Amino acid sequence: MIRKTLGASLLAALFLATPAFAEKATVERPIEGSSLHVGRLDMAVYYVPVDGDLLEVTATFAPKGGGDPLRVVMGLADRDSVTFSMPGYQDSLYTFSRSGEEVTVSTETDMPLRADAQMR
Prior knowledge:
This protein is an alpha+beta fold. It has one domain (about 20-120): Sandwich (Tick-borne Encephalitis virus Glycoprotein, domain 1), CATH 2.60.98. The protein is about 15% helix and about 50% strand. The strands form two sheets. Strands 1-8-7-6 form a four-stranded antiparallel beta sheet, with no helix packed on it. Strands 2-3-4-5 form a four-stranded antiparallel beta sheet, with no helix packed on it. Strand 4 and strand 5 form a beta hairpin.
């Protein structure tokens, strides 16, 4: 009886769990670019130094199904971090964080990976 209940509970947990997929990229130098491709948006990112200690980070998001790109420009000081989702794409969270001259960008999404992306 306990084994049957435990098996049913495990099966229910597997069906109720929402899979999360993640990807991370680090930009180590000005103008050097990087990209992320998990979820419904592809994203390209780079930074340039501005105003003393700030790095101006530019991220461009392109919908995989077509449509106009979205752009975010932000200033990050050392040890700054910000997390947000893009309007209309709340199923993905993007985190930008800075440590020294490195900017790390990560995404976590509830959307499954495309079949060709899973094989890379």
